[in-house]
Write a structure and sequence with these properties.
The structure is a homodimer of 322-residue chains.
Chain A: H1 4-17, H2 26-36, H3 43-54, H4 59-83, E1 88-89, E2 92-93, H5 95-99, H6 101-119, H7 124-153, H8 159-185, H9 189-216, H10 219-222, H11 228-231, H12 237-245, H13 247-256, H14 262-276, H15 278-298, H16 304-319
Antiparallel strand pairs in A: 1-2
Helix pairs in contact in A: 1-3, 2-6, 3-4, 3-8, 4-6, 4-8, 7-8, 8-9, 9-15, 9-16, 12-13, 12-15, 13-14, 15-16
Amino acid sequence: MKTTADYSSDVESALRALPLPEGKFDNLYAPIRYALSAGGKRLRPVMVLMAADAFGEASAKAMDAALGVELFHNFTLLHDDVMDNSEVRRGRQSVHAKYGVNSAILSGDTMLTLANAQVGKVDDTVLRPVLDVFNAMALNVYEGQQLDMDFETGKDVTLDDYLLMTSLKTGALLGAAVQIGALIGGASEKEAKKMYEYGMNIGLAFQIQDDWLDTFGDSITFGKPIGGDIANNKKTYLYLAVGAASKSDAEALAIAMQLPEKEMKIKTVKRIYEKAGAGEMCQKAVAAYMTKAMGALRHTSLSDESKEAFRKFAEKLVGRKK
Amino acid sequence: MKTTADYSSDVESALRALPLPEGKFDNLYAPIRYALSAGGKRLRPVMVLMAADAFGEASAKAMDAALGVELFHNFTLLHDDVMDNSEVRRGRQSVHAKYGVNSAILSGDTMLTLANAQVGKVDDTVLRPVLDVFNAMALNVYEGQQLDMDFETGKDVTLDDYLLMTSLKTGALLGAAVQIGALIGGASEKEAKKMYEYGMNIGLAFQIQDDWLDTFGDSITFGKPIGGDIANNKKTYLYLAVGAASKSDAEALAIAMQLPEKEMKIKTVKRIYEKAGAGEMCQKAVAAYMTKAMGALRHTSLSDESKEAFRKFAEKLVGRKK
């Protein structure tokens, strides 16, 4: 099996070689080229390739599907940034900030169809199961995004709501990435589902870690200002877990969230989190999801070497500082 | 073969039976139910069913793909209405006017994925060719919409540009509808392509007729106010064909389009069109595309009865008053 860095650079080259016409339709395809050139770790396509390799199929065969998964992920970023009014993505202007909202919508639609077409290039033998997984995942991601938007205005968001939203918006795509890779690699439907479970659970661990970093991370290594979630009243794992554990902490948080001055608000909320042991709560939850993910791997026919590679991948993903 | 009215009512029932979950994700699926309940003639899915029947496969088998085509069409309406800032659709609020822009974007995305999933329900034997046709069509539609948006700000739009835009935005979907139906019905790839040609050409005839009706139709039977294209400086077939035929008419049109008062502007432009024989130009173009469409049918193995049904369908479509 290659290293993740090797897979990642394979993905990068393949993305650059994607035929995105210039000329007459440049207003449609230029925003796509821009979005895809933002770089990043290409986690999701790497997961497709890793899983395909691990189950025995040369990764070149899985590259089309891997690119489809990456196109899908980037399509969601284009549309989410419009919906969330986010002007910045990876330190650059978001697509709608640079090209306008209409371009972000239409070029996003184009990326979704390109994603479908790429994923649809898999061999006939796995075409239907792969498409079924892909389409079901896409619906889950939209449902997760809908819940996320609902939470902004909803008052009674519970920890369970959060976990459902996160499993749909984040976990489903990581799960589908390894499931699709596994199917291409020749895994049985049952094993491929176990791989989905692995991806889903590291997705949940990843998001909880991300929530923790947003409040307690280092702004330089995290790559964005610390405390953004608190400033924006986001219903994070920290907020909901601390609130679920203690009624008085829940009340204190609700009041602190109303503080008008941003720095004071962040400081106060952080103090409540620290006193309640939010860091430990996150650690415990992350560890539990990691254990589930590793448990899922155990139910596959993967070699010990491959299992170890997926374990390392998960630890790196969740242990990341940015 | 059934009548188009029968096919249309079959589509209507099948659409109502589509599983669109209520409950937790209602904010995502309610706008879809609303969009699909607007009614209409369901032309595109009817074309899928007609073609499948004509080539020999019971239409029930083609219904999934027909619904996919209708879902796709409605997805484009949701997003186009956002991009064009259109508040009204079929005499009701457009989806973004009723549910907000974010809902129109996200529920539209959901409809595109549902469309892919529906179309992907066809038999294994035709799955790949049908998906290839469907995805290529979708890209064409986006390219057409991009050109249409470009035209709003572009100064030098030619008649050829218009025909390219229309073939992509309107013709491609009608073409793909009958091509997909034909493939499901067991047509050869070559015959199915001829059916695409039929759909493409009636699409062009349809759009030119639509442009003519927008200026010279009856506002009651046409279902919207007359002169809207002139009021909005749209580069229609009338405008571009008259301008292409005579330099002095082109200049007169360019000046008349700058008239500040709407009624005066519509009247003046209409008078230029009338003097230039725009009605006849449209008639000729429509007749030419209809001839091409009928020519394409001749290169298929369709029975005379089926050819006649497709001829009648085209005439009804293009001869419509609304």
